């Protein structure tokens, strides 16, 4: 399966600051990456689909100006949480589609805590 | 719209006993069905998938799942549970390859294997 790396694993920031999370596909080129958000004891909710070289597609209810997604290369997508607030504290997980048969492979996740 | 139901929030099983984690789904057309496992503060690990073919699918770590079209179910099973199987399990469905179609997750089932 695909190997997906996320960085950082943990981040704590002050309210009002911006935080960038990186997602890398290590062993194949991913034209599409997906960003999910997971609240404690809840399921994964798709935030946006990141497309290499074009604008991301956001799910309904997700603020595109708050959650900036950049997919500048075939192996890297970034999610920037701008002007973070405590309610943005969550577990953010990226994924890529497998190169063969369409299952998703996930990164290890990034836990954001906004103080 | 597609949906996934995991009716049990938690399943407890004694080590060595068989385990079942239930999943039912709703989707238009032929389903692509997946099981993922999540350990604390980690991303999701792919266990197995059903796309077509044999209704009994074998996956990683000795897990298997049975696709039942008439009951729209895709229950996860393992003949003999290990303590290390204790984790959060997610069932997911999409109407096509997960990279091209949105993957919808169930709310997850926490499996606890008791020594």
Largest interchain contact: A-B, 27 and 23 residues
Query: Helix/strand-derived class of chain A?
Result: mainly beta
Structural class of chain B: mainly beta
Report the major sheet of chain B.
Answer: 6 strands, mixed
Terminal CA distance of chain A = 36 Å
What is the chain-wise order of helices and strands of chain A?
EEEEEEEEEEE
Strand tally of chain B, please?
12
- Report the sheet with the most strands of chain A, covering strand number, pairing sense and barrel closure: 7 strands, mixed
Number of strands of chain A: 11
Give the C-alpha Rg of chain B: 13 Å
Oligomer status: heterodimer
3D structure, described in words:
The complex is a heterodimer of chains A (115) and B (115). Chain A has 115 residues and is an all-beta fold. In chain A, 0% of the residues lie in helices and 53% in strands. In chain A, strands 2, 4, 5, 6, 9, 10 and 11 form a seven-stranded mixed beta sheet that branches. A four-stranded antiparallel beta sheet of chain A has the order 1-3-8-7, with no helix packed on it. In chain A, a hairpin with a 5-residue loop joins β4 and β5 (44-51). The radius of gyration of chain A is 13 Å and the shape is globular. Chain A starts with a strand and ends with a strand. By secondary structure, chain B is mainly β. Chain B has no helices and twelve strands. Chain B has strands spanning 3-5, 10-14, 19-21, 24-26, 32-38, 44-50, 56-58, 64-68, 73-78, 87-94, 104-105, 109-114. In chain B, the strands form three sheets. In chain B, strands 2, 5, 6, 10, 11 and 12 form a six-stranded mixed beta sheet that branches. In chain B, a hairpin with a 5-residue loop joins β7 and β8 (64-68). The mean pLDDT of chain B is 93. The interface between A and B is medium-sized, with 27 and 23 residues.
């Amino acid at each position: 399966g695909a190997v997906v790396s996320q960085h950082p694993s943990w981040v704590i920031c002050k309210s009002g600051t911006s935080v960038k999370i990186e997602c890398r596909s290590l062993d194949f080129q991913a034209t599409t990456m997906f960003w999910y958000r997971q609240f404690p004891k809840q399921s994964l909710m798709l935030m946006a689909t990141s497309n290499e070289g074009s604008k991301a597609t956001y799910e309904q209810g997700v603020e595109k100006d708050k959650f900036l997604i950049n997919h500048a290369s075939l192996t890297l997508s970034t999610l920037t949480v701008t002007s973070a607030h405590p309610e943005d504290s969550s577990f953010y997980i990226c994924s890529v589609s497998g190169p063969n048969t369409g299952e998703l492979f996930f990164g290890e996740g990034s836990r954001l805590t906004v103080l | 719209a597609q949906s996934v139901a995991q009716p049990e929030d938690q399943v407890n099983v004694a080590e060595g006993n068989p385990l079942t984690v239930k999943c039912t789904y709703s989707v238009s057309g032929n389903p692509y069905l997946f099981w993922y496992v999540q350990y604390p503060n980690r991303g999701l690990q792919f266990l197995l998938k059903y796309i077509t073919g044999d209704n009994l699918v074998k996956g990683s770590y000795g897990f298997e799942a049975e696709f039942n079209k008439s009951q729209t179910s895709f229950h996860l099973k393992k003949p003999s549970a290990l303590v290390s199987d204790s984790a959060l399990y997610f069932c997911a469905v999409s109407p096509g390859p997960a990279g091209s179609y949105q993957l919808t997750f169930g709310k997850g089932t926490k499996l606890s294997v008791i020594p």
